[in-house]
Fold each of these.
Amino acid sequence: MTDHRTRFLQLALKANALRFGEFTLKSGRVSPYFFNAGRFDSGAALAGLGACYADAIQAHGLDFDLLFGPAYKGIPLATALGCEYARRGRDLPLAFNRKEAKAHGEGGMLIGAPLAGRRVLIVDDVITAGTAIREALALIGEAGGTVAGIVIALDRQEAVDPAQSRRSAAETVAIEHSLPVVAIATLDDLLAFTGESAEFSTQRERLLAYRAAYGRDA
Ligand code: OMP
């Protein structure tokens, strides 16, 4: 497995951002694992995560000129990635949205660098059904930006309606919007990772059963 994928899964487990158990998702599905990007809650943890995003982007050769972090969880993620790019010698503009429009002061829904005329990379945590990402796509379009790609930490590779189609939500977003969608790691990577150590054998069985029920085509 490529280096940044393993590094990310190890970091996520260490930070308790990736947990095994029983979790009810936004979709109502009960999942044997959950990724909570909010647990990357220290400078060092976010710096490590920022480097994983940058390596994944480099591996896929994405081209963009602004980073956008959707509120709330995307905000520190895009910031960590922006700091990592600066460390690597590229100073990129950054922007975020707020969830509530502000009527006073500077007003509006957007904070940071203007999006108009920019090729925007959306930086977010996880795609399950793709709802959160679609909201970000609409916001950026309204602000005059062009979305050049999406990078997420974890692609859960779930089909929205497995009875209809086994295409994953991330693949559907990529096709519908003609956009590259890059993940640091996917459920397949997590399965490969858990397969490397007997310590995770029970969790792996549950992941496999979950993928059989909701996952995209293998
Ligand atoms: P979609 O909008 O369905 O793609 O789900 C993405 C959102 O689900 C994330 O932004 C989280 O709010 C939440 N989520 C996680 O954070 N981690 C997971 O492992 C799974 C979910 C989820 O509820 O599907």
Amino acid sequence: AELTQEEQFQTRIDADVRIEPKDWMPEAYRKTLIRQISQHAHSEIVGMLPEGNWITRAPSLKRKAILLAKVQDEAGHGLYLYSAAETLGASRDQMLADLHSGKAKYSSIFNYPTLSWADMGTIGWLVDGAAILNQVPLCRTSYGPYARAMVRVCKEESFHQRQGFEIMQTLSEGTPEQKQMAQEALNRWWWPTLMMFGPKDADSPNTEQSMKWRIKRFTNDELRQKFVDMMVPQAEFLGLTVPDEKLRWNEAKQGYDFGEVDWAEFWDVVKGNGPCSRERLQARVDAWNEGEWVREAALAHAAKRSARGKV
Ligand code: FAQ
């Protein structure tokens, strides 16, 4: 019997053939990719804000230069991702309007405040560490433009993670006050970082289909477990304590058992009630409004050039 278009599509996915923008794809595949890629892009752009908060207060010129470069990289990641979503027919204006109206989500992690310099270390170490674990498999995601964007993003994220770990190492080897700053930041960021991987598989409506379509290559719980297994030895190396009383090595599974994330807090933050949710969104809306004259000027300039026959 002849395969339907949808069956042919699934056959290609199963053979690890990349899907490209002009290929036929089920509408639901397109929709879920636009959802995930645009939310990923929003996370990068909103993710500039918590660290941007410390650029003027970095403890040295060297630290300031590194932090500036990292925050600029995140802007770049957002731009590659918006471009990847555009290849699916999403318009950038619409994606941004959805962010500004609160309709589109972005990662819960960026709704928490950055209270001390140690938070710059913790974000690089833990948050970028989580981002890498999630994004390295996305280099093999089934949609070509998304997969290719992830290759460069992951290279830059590795540098971000190293710089975060190095800040933590410096603080951990510093004065007792500095070590305490590092521990206090770890205490605040550990659980929100575990939330970055999304709800438990049993409560994740998108995972099953996204795994079938090879948009996701690992489930939320699989990645969360890998993260804990990777980070606990690093925390031990730093001489810091992971704030989880239930954390134990499990010889049989060759991984750590760990405590339960506060899912009520997770959903509350996802719904827009995080400690900095309103502030973050307002910063993006203000940037959009204050940038209007730049967009107008760029359009006027482009129109003049094209009237002169130069593109
Ligand atoms: N926050 O059914 P699932 C970075 C939503 S890294 C907010 O499991 P899915 C780098 C989810 O959207 C951070 N919402 O969904 C950086 C869905 O709602 P929807 C960004 C969350 O898509 C570092 C609902 O819950 N990385 O930016 C969260 O299969 C430092 C049900 O969930 C990516 O976006 C959450 N944590 O799995 C930048 C990676 N978790 O959309 C600056 C790509 C879930 O149906 C500084 N994305 N939700 O209305 C993914 O891998 C997936 O989309 C997941 C969620 C794993 C995030």
Amino acid sequence: DVMREILGLKDLETNLKRILPIDEVIVVAGDSDLSPWVKKEMGRACVTCMKDRLPSHSIVAVTGGTTLAAVAEMMTADLKQSDVLFVPARGGLGENVENQANTICAKMAEKAAGNYRLLHVPDYLSNEAYQSLIGEPSVKEVLQLIQSADIVIHGIGDAITMAKRRKTPEEEMEKIISGNAVAEAFGYYFNQAGDVVHKVQTIGIQLDDLRHVRHVIAVAGGASKAKAIKAYMKQAPRSVLITDEGAAKALVRES
Ligand code: F6P
């Protein structure tokens, strides 16, 4: 803790709490845009944060992305509560296998010596497919587990970066660009004011559901995500933010 004070991380945390409507924040040293290991440091901080909040018989819902993959990598099995169930927060969002919520969820469970359930749904769902899928008993069962999550751990991304990474169809891409989207989380795209300008149709946690979740932990760092973090937090229910020095300094500078 003395080290964190010397590094100025404590000051950054105090400043961020003034700028953003968040309950709690942890800033790790470095900038994950420049040094990949910083994601693992955020991962380590996230695992500690999760363990501190874990009730017994708990359900933890997670999203995808490289940051959440780093959280999974840092997961350890010393959970005091033996029965943690990991579930993906939402269905397919167009990520590569290693960055999909399903993959990350299974890896976390394995490392934590917990259990997991997966959502097997395609990435792009038509309205008809969506309606019939949510009626399937096996999907319904997992959806119910997701909706009763005690903890949700999620990533936040830059809107355009994410839209490109997902190979978003042109029509949707135009909607995202003309809506001036700057942030993405859970398949939702947000403008600077925190308004939703586009949403990927998939099953699982919807933005409104987050208000009923006990603990929401956002993990996102790198100076390039400062705008996205700020925009997303404008509409987010008070949550815990785990970020890095790169993003924190950019946020403070731009405030
Ligand atoms: O696609 C899943 C997701 O969690 C997005 O909601 C988020 O924008 C993105 O991943 C973050 O990815 P990364 O951690 O690789 O920047």
Amino acid sequence: TPPIHVVGGGLAGSEAAWQIASAGVPVVIHEMRGVRGTEAHKTDDLAELVCSNSFRSDDAENNAVGLLHAEMRLANSLIMASGDAHQVPAGGALAVDRDSFSAAVTARLEAHPLVTVLREEISGLPPAEWDQAIIATGPLTAPSLAEAIRAETGADALAFFDAIAPIVHFDTIDMETAWFQSRYDKVGPGGTGKDYVNCPMDKDRYFAFVQALIDGGKTEFKEWEGTPYFDGCLPIEVMAERGVETLRHGPMKPMGLTNAHDPAVKAYAVVQLRQDNALGTLYNMVGFQTKLKHAEQVRIFRMIPGLKNAEFARLGGLHRNTYINSPVLLDGSLQLKSRPGLRFAGQITGCEGYVESAAIGLLAGRFAAAERLGRPLSTPPATTAFGALLGHITGGHIVSDDEPGKRSFQPMNVNFGLFPPLDPGTKLKPEGFEGRFRGKDKASAKKRAVTARALADCKAWLGLEMRQAAE
Ligand code: FAD
């Protein structure tokens, strides 16, 4: 069997290679470290953790990333097995000893008879003779390869920085204060004239809000990142510093919006949120990309009327990050539509974080191996964490029609907002529950129902139950 080629031996590439070899297909990993480094990696080991040593929450019942851990364990993940074997105490989180973790991943791959690790930089798209390949070169993809990807996909399709605005769970927005309306009730293609959630501010609140943005704690760019401020992408606090009225004439302009709850009162400024996923469970804060520290974002953005109790699926950020416009470029099995046989995996596809990157590597590896073996491709159900994350990357995404040319796809961690809602008849109240069933109790029962559904569907997808029943 001819090998599958994996470019990049990071979190995604290592997991992809493991899945391919585990399916009985030879695989070649091409990893440049050893020949050329990146700005963030410090060693030559595969699957190096460049910053924190945490895989975040390991709670599979109440947390979406914990659920993803559990699904990856079911799918024979090398990254999870090595993480579990080299964990260090971290409460409910799964944290690992970074050196022994990466050494273990490297050793397991190098010892596998179907795996070859080559230390070399791949500086163009995979050659035609590699009929099956996966590009998993991560947020710091070497410039020559990034240039080749850009040439293949188009200039707008590859970003070198993310500009992330916070995303709010819709059901935590107070719609007694906020209202639905598009500016000037404009109906865009596929729109209704009520496409935005609007949060009004009076003059005093607006001034206090601008001051809070200026005073709030910020994170700094790393020296090698440069300062990527470009048109239309200024952090909200930088706009605030330019003058107290700047935001009111930018993302917070009140024109063309009438408070549905109190039409006589004209708002001094309005924060708008736009639907972010096809399910309508997530809304992003338009124009609110920011370098404010995460805790500061929560504190300051909850000052916005209507967002007092907001829960955030993602907080804002601005980082050096190479990633492609996957919803447009990739098919549902992570394959580049313009070059069948070439897949992308990991953070370059627009997921975020070690675990998510490895999970997308796991899927890309399985898809490529199935194709090589002539087996039917089966994608994970949308109800699983695998499927929810894959859905964020390859589809189900709202592309903004009111800002022509502006890309709305931004990287994201796995979170409950990406999962389809529960069936309306799902029983949430536990047997014997006393008192009023609402608020926190209801929210955590919902999470447990989503995670139970996900694990059951994941097991079914992997065929584990069938195999176990046959044994
Ligand atoms: P990587 O793990 O980066 O792997 C890509 C691999 O491809 C690298 O080994 C690289 O050397 C190789 N490569 C690149 N170009 C080529 C080429 N042309 N030829 C051959 N090989 C090539 N995530 C977290 O979860 N927690 C954090 O704390 C965190 N901190 C971060 C801090 C920084 C500064 C950065 C840049 C990222 C951070 N991330 C963090 C994100 C993290 O990098 C990713 O989640 C994860 O490493 C992505 O996995 P990946 O496999 O897609 O990319």
